[in-house]
Design a protein that fits this description.
This protein is an alpha/beta fold. It has one domain (3-181): 3-Layer(aba) Sandwich (Dihydrofolate Reductase, subunit A). The chain is built from 4 helices and 10 strands, in the order E-E-H-E-H-E-E-H-E-H-E-E-E-E. The protein has helices at residues 38-43, 52-59, 97-106, 117-125, and strands at 3-11, 15-17, 47-51, 70-73, 90-93, 111-115, 129-137, 145-146, 153-164, 170-181.
Length: 182
């Protein structure tokens, strides 16, 4: 089956966005000249899977065209909600994670980038994430959208590598294990 892979940044206190899904805190860091591996990661995947909130936030970025296909998981968005400049690059799905990955497999996808807090959490719970690159940004924002949420059991992680950068970012690459019921 298609495997899920995560490449995401968090604040030091574990948030991936503010409550309003704003990413302004992420833009404060002097990291634009550092190679954190994002381009190489994106070259390794066949497309992106993201949730509604992540899609609506990123769709507003003028310099963020999608070079790869995007699937947005949403129960509320309709085709008319996709901005004109993203037509043909983005499709909506209401499928459960396992069903979506089977559909993507049938469509030739081998590796999918999984993005967005709740989407990552649901794919983790279903054992669909093979690995995660979690980069910690040296900033405390106090409140927001957490990367991780409730689980039915522990998920074992194995550190594959860790890198620190002159800007203070720390990137940890983990392989994931199955959910172990308590």
């Amino acid at each position: 089956m298609t495997t899920g892979h995560v490449f995401i940044a968090t604040s030091l206190d574990g948030f991936i966005a503010r409550r309003d899904h704003s990413l302004d805190w992420l833009m404060k860091q002097p990291v634009q000249k550092e190679d954190h591996g994002y381009e190489a990661f994106m070259a390794s995947v066949d497309g992106l899977i993201m949730g509604r909130a992540s899609f609506q936030t990123v769709a507003r970025f003028p310099d963020r065209p999608y070079a790869k296909p995007v699937v947005v998981l949403s129960q509320t968005l309709r085709d008319g909600d996709i901005p004109d400049h993203l037509l043909g690059k983005v499709r909506l799905s209401r499928a459960a994670p396992v069903a979506l990955m089977a559909q993507l497999q049938a469509g030739g996808w081998k590796r999918a980038c999984v993005d967005g807090g709740r989407v990552i959490q649901s794919f983790l719970r279903d054992g669909l994430i093979a690995d995660m690159v979690v980069t910690t940004i040296p900033i405390l924002i106090g409140d927001g959208v957490r990367l991780f949420g409730p689980l039915s059991g522990d998920i074992d992680l194995r550190l594959l590598n860790s890198r620190s950068f002159p800007s203070g970012l720390v990137s940890n690459h983990y392989a994931t294990g199955p959910v172990r019921s308590e």
